[in-house]
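tool_call: predict_structure(chain=1)
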Amino acid sequence: MSRVHSTTSHIERDLQHAVQQSALDVSIRYYYLDWLRVGAFGLLVLYHIGMLYSEHWGFHFKSAYLSTAVENIMLFVSPWRMALIWFISGAAIRCLVDKQSRWGFLANRTVVILLPLLVGVWLVVPIQLFAQLQQEQGISLSLVEFFTAFFNFSSPLFESYSAGIWPHVDVNHLWYLRSLWQFSLIIIIVAPLLCCSGVQNGVTRLLDTSMGVCFCVCALPLLLLKFIWPEDTFRYPMGFVFLMYGFVFVHQSRFFARLGECAFILLALYLTIYLSLLYGYHDVWLNAEATQLQKELVKGLYTIAGVIGVAMVIGFGVRFLNFPSTTIKWLNQFVFPFYVLHQSVLIALAFYLAPFQLGGIVEPMAIIIGTFSICTLMCWGIARHDILRLCFGAKVDLNYQTPQGKRQRALGLLVVTPLIVELLY
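tool_result:
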């Protein structure tokens, strides 16, 4: 017991020091969030590769080697994988807002988020549509011919394809970037309220209560939304709620220290919930004879698993990953480029490897290795040119306070203006 108390005190002291330092030096970072950000997006890549092989979950392209077993594995991370990304995004927004004006933040983030989204929907995502139409409709076009048709809004090839941002130009996996920008607009409006002392003191009092009370309060809005919101679009309000949690919780050092203390307890709790989810998934969700009440109970359990899962992962991050790493610092610069590229790369690999019939073990291993290798090589190329860094969301050493920086930001805003109009109207 004394070892646990000593570990907790050490974690809390380090986190409290970081919060105090952040008031003096805005460059202070929560290192565990850097580690978790890289890990969460790496996990997202593996999850999307798993979607190629899931038997009951829809995806843009499917392998011939479908399996329910892979769904059992994916179900372990499915409740919290995107929730964690949204929580970290909210925490990052708060740290950025703390060190720059709200409107400067919005202008900068508009370029950083929407320019990769614009490049992605026109040049990266269409590769997924090419493979999808080849599989579903058997089109006999080369990739070059497909892109020629893609840039022609009157092409009959896409008559049955639903409109996205523009006719047949959709976001696919880049929905996160679209929503991140839209949510950032809301955050900017409500930031003065969320950052005021009254709200922060209320949050502190809540987080100083028992962990059970904290989890119940955090889970309640998500449960309400889960039961009233359409299932196919629930990811949007869920993302916003976790974004808000990250924004208001990030400086609460005592709460994160308690998560670090409870990491193994949370793991045990999550494993129990996961086993219950497995039962609910196979015996209820996939059972055509299951009642609606049974399905609603499984949905509620899935939502609770998301809250506990995020707390569990953050707890382990606080406990074991709260230290700087030059490798993680470098990798964090290329999270956005890797994210933009990965799904088209893995689908292209699945499409071109399919005729070789490699089998249900060799093929996924080849796609995993190929996806990470190709995306890493492409990120290396992107890193060598500032214009490519901007287009794919990699960090660029650019001071927006200088005349040159202001001109480049203005140019970026001009380029993404048509996209802004479509997203707002």
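agent: The chain has one domain: 2-147+159-424. Proceeding to next step.
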